[in-house]
Amino acid sequence: MSKSYIFSSESVTEGHPDKVCDTISDAILDACLAQDKYSRVACETLAKSNLVVVAGEITTKANLDYVSIVREAIRGIGYTYDDDVFHADKVHVLNALTRQSADIAQGVDAEKHEGKETAEQGAGDQGLMFGFACTESPELMPAPIVYAHKLGRKLADLRKSGKVKWLRPDAKTQVSLQYVNGVPVRVDAVVVSTQHADGVKHKEIEKYVIEEIIKKTIPAKLLDKKTRYFVNPTGRFVIGGPEGDSGLTGRKIIVDTYGGMGRHGGGAFSGKDPSKVDRSAAYMGRYVAKNVVAAGLADRVEIQFAYAIGYPEPISIAVDTFGTGKVDEAKIEKAIREVFSFKPANIVKQLNLLRPVYSKSTNYGHFGRTDDLNALTWEKTDKAKALAKLAGL
Predict the structure, then answer these.
(1) Which of 17-34 are b and which e, b meaning 16 or more Cβ less than 10 Å from the residue's Cβ?
(2) Residue 1 β-bridge partners
(3) pLDDT digits (tens, 9 = 90+) for 41-83
(4) What is the structure's pLDDT at 76?
(5) What distance, in Å, lies between the first and last C-alpha atoms of the chain?
(6) What is the rounded CA–CA span in Å between residue 214 and residue 173?
(7) Could you write out the DSSP letters of every residue in 259-302?
(8) Looking at the chain, which runs of residues are DSSP E strands?
(9) pTM of this structure
């Protein structure tokens, strides 16, 4: 008996208030790492109207002008229109950054301290991290989030090229796919809400978005006469970005990962250096899961591991192939443990994370991107053959 259901995922463009904050936080992180690769960074950003607040803990040898970094990040997004309340050259920036807590630092540092069991680099915090991959798309990602991201990137590309004068930076997309027996077969609904210049008719926006963006981004075989389109369903979206809504770093963790298809441990990514396992171990989880699927060991896999602050080894590792494994899960887990190391210091080495590469991953998903594998090293599948051999495939 066939099973049919609909699964939806959303994405947002870099002009969305929360993504503005993620972009600023990662810009500050990259600036620190560019001068001092051992920088410890935990930078949070809040944006509302014409105010930006950067707060958190940074310990670095870098000499930086944080206000200039904030302005350039906003300029790169595109908030430079004369009528913008939130404007790269006009925002007020409040700096509330301090140094990293010495108590946290001793847990992360590769040094022995009283009460710390080892002299190895430990995890920067306790937490749960998940990695996920599946065969639904060439990116080995869930299809709904792949298409939602592609729609957002298309909007941004058209805006930045100047081809569509009325497009503005803030936008959200959502794709609902119908699955039959676990296979995506058609798009049931697409939602696109895009900020636009004043004076543009809703019908013009709706027609252009459907014909030039949606139908030229989502494969025609997935669209049919029953597919529903919702374009700016409120009828007007002129006031956007931090003028329309406050933004905060780390509020789009499902957009950043698997669109809700894979589980999430709760930790955000942006503004955090790789000593924070919230970020680096989640990247490692994706790296492992993608290599497992690329090796043909499963059509769908999720890996979970957990850490204790200051301790180098993960407390637990779990693998779930959802019944799609080609070999026993115990063999897959054993192969994973032989090929990869999950110690925080080793994750950093394996993925070459002490570099200013994080702004490349901020928008349109931290996972599923293959546009720059030199930077986004967690998307490589260079361990697939080793995994397959060890698992006996």
Answers:
(1) bbbbbbbbbbbbbbbbbe
(2) none
(3) 999 999 999 999 999 999 999 999 999 999 999 999 999 999 9
(4) 98
(5) 31
(6) 10
(7) TTSS---S---TTB-TTSHHHHHHHHHHHHHHHHHHTTSBSEEE
(8) 4-12, 40-48, 51-59, 92-98, 127-134, 167-180, 183-196, 228-231, 247-248, 300-307, 316-320
(9) 0.93
Report d(CA 17, CA 20) in Å as an integer.
5
CA distance 169 to 196: 8
Residues of the chain with pLDDT under 50: 104-105, 107, 113, 116
Least Cα distance to 176 among 163, 166, 186 occurs for: 186
Write out pLDDT tens, residues 291-337.
999 999 999 999 998 988 888 888 989 999 999 999 999 999 999 99
At residue 280, φ and ψ (nearest 5 deg) are -65, -40
Between CA 361 and CA 23 the distance in angstroms is 9
Q: What are the backbone angles phi and psi of residue 294, rounded to the nearest 5°? A: -60, -30
* Nearest of 393, 392, 370 to residue 382 by alpha carbon: 370
Greatest extent of the chain over all pairs of C-alpha atoms, in Å = 68
Question: How far is residue 129's CA from residue 380's CA, in Å, rounded to a whole number?
Answer: 19
